[in-house]
């Protein structure tokens, strides 16, 4: 007995099963009778047959030797990396200050519901078939229109690929442009999922320090002048929050053009800018077709949407289409139709405008609460853009221990120090503020202050009494 059917599960009727597996009904009837006689199923003619609640456990079959060997399968080199990554993989709960939580108000939910109903009512049968690996042209048009206006991205819809998020854009980029051992500049500190994806697929990571102006291009030139690519978050460096200066942007483009390197620009949360005018995307400044621009709905709308996009130079469109096809063919047609309808009706733009107001208040509330409750312990980098902030401890505090203590108290914060590779690590925390109301955020800051003080007290040497 393999227990693949749970107790109480209804078996198909003898007639259905006989038709499905192509044997006579008499054979099925006698098999059911045997199961009934041995106590594996219960039931009477007419009322259905069910898996017995108390089917004898002693009948459970031991796994075969082959099955036991499969419990520890030999994996490919890449498989071993995936397994190691999975062992530390945690899905953060929706608690303050999880960066994956975004707000969505009743207006946007209603807009999504209405758009979804219209899509279903006017369902285009063409959407039942396999679709374009680049994504539906209606959605690519909307994304191109949006990016030209909002991010000064220079693109035609043919250059847009609809993807399942920034992570897929990064994965496909590595597959189509890098060979194992190729050098890639990455920000130090930087975004861990990109670092993992690059090293899993065999790239040689070249950590390049980041300062207040973003990636230090000169340091990158010294470390690996002939690198194949650079991955960068210029509008809101993760995790320091730095915005890359225009001089550095131009320097980076100069280097990439001269070296024949690719720039992967991850523009993950630049929509939420609270002061001044946004700096143009790197892609918009580029005249050399060196930038692969990556955007996502994860922050703009919500991460469960699993929808993002890349804008690639015309010479790369075909190779990306091929890679997308062989990975998972194309994005869901139904989901694309809903999102393109949502964008065409202007709902995404108005959602972003409303959320920008909301997130600005959330940011201000968190900054003000941190300064009041733990200003003696930390320095806050007030973000001009984005939906998370970084604060650094003034003294030597173990940020990993604080994150663990905060988790025990129902908070999700990320320690900064594990994001460093070669640069001297700073100790701090990253706090997402987009998914919670101001009251909840203030209460959470108070708890975080208590968690931090508890860790500091534990680490302090015991006081000698006089
Ligand atoms: C730097 C960075 N890039 C991209 C993303 C979003 O990735 P995805 O679109 O795969 O959800 C995040 C989310 O936290 C991020 O921090």
UniProtKB/TrEMBL annotation:
Span of domain HTH gntR-type: 1-54
Gene Ontology molecular-function annotations: transaminase activity
Pfam family, one: Aminotran_1_2
SMART domains per the UniProt record, alphabetical: HTH_GNTR (SM00345)
Keywords of this entry: Aminotransferase, DNA-binding, Pyridoxal phosphate, Transcription, Transcription regulation, Transferase
Keyword Cell membrane: no
UniProt KW Transcription keyword: yes
UniProt xrefs under InterPro entries: Aminotransferase_I/II_large (IPR004839), HTH_trans_reg/aminotransferase (IPR051446), PyrdxlP-dep_Trfase (IPR015424), PyrdxlP-dep_Trfase_major (IPR015421), Tscrpt_reg_HTH_GntR (IPR000524), WH-like_DNA-bd_sf (IPR036388), WH_DNA-bd_sf (IPR036390)
Family: In the C-terminal section; belongs to the class-I pyridoxal-phosphate-dependent aminotransferase family.
Protein name (Swiss-Prot/TrEMBL): PLP-dependent aminotransferase family protein
């Amino acid at each position: 007995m393999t227990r693949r059917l749970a107790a109480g599960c209804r078996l198909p009727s003898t007639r259905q099963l006989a038709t499905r597996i192509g044997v006579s009904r008499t054979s099925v009837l006698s098999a059911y009778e045997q199961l009934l006689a041995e106590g594996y199923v219960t039931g009477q003619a007419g009322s259905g047959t069910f898996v017995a609640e108390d089917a004898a456990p002693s009948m459970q079959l031991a796994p075969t030797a082959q099955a036991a060997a499969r419990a520890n399968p030999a994996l490919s080199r890449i498989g071993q990396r995936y397994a190691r990554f999975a062992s530390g993989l945690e899905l953060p709960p929706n608690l303050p200050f999880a960066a994956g939580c975004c707000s969505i108000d009743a207006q946007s939910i209603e807009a999504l519901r209405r758009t979804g109903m219209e899509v279903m009512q006017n369902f285009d049968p063409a959407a039942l078939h396999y679709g374009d690996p680049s994504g539906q042209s209606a959605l690519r048009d909307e994304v191109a229109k949006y990016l030209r206006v909002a991010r000064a991205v220079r693109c035609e819809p043919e250059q847009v690929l609809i993807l399942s998020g920034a992570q897929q854009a990064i994965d496909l980029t590595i597959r189509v442009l890098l060979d194992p051992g190729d050098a890639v500049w990455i920000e130090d500190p930087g975004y861990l999922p990109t670092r993992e994806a690059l090293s899993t697929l065999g790239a040689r990571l070249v950590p390049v320090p980041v300062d207040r102006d973003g990636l230090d291009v000169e340091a990158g030139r010294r470390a690996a002048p002939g690198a194949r690519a650079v991955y960068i978050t210029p509008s809101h460096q993760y995790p320091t929050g730095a915005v890359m200066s225009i001089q550095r942007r131009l320097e980076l483009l100069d280097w990439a053009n001269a070296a024949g390197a690719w720039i992967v620009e991850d523009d993950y949360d630049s929509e939420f800018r609270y002061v001044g005018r946004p700096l143009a995307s790197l892609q918009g400044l580029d005249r050399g077709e060196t930038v692969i621009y990556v955007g996502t709905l994860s922050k703009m709308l919500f991460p469960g949407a699993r929808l993002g996009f890349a804008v690639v130079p015309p010479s790369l469109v075909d190779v990306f289409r091929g890679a997308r096809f062989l990975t998972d063919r194309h994005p869901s047609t139904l989901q694309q139709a809903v999102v393109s309808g949502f964008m065409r009706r202007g709902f995404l733009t108005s959602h972003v405008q409303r959320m920008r107001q909301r997130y600005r208040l959330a940011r201000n509330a968190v900054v003000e609460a941190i300064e009041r409750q733990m200003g003696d312990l930390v320095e806050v980098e007030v973000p001009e853009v984005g939906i998370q902030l970084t604060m650094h401890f003034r003294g030597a505090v173990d940020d990993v221990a604080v994150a663990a203590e905060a988790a025990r108290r129902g908070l999700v914060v990320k320690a900064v120090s594990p994001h460093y590779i070669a640069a001297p690590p700073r100790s701090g925390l990253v706090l997402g503020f987009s998914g919670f109301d101001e009251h909840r955020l203030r209460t959470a800051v108070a708890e975080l202050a208590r968690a931090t003080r508890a860790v500091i007290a534990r680490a302090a040497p015991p006081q000698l009494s006089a």
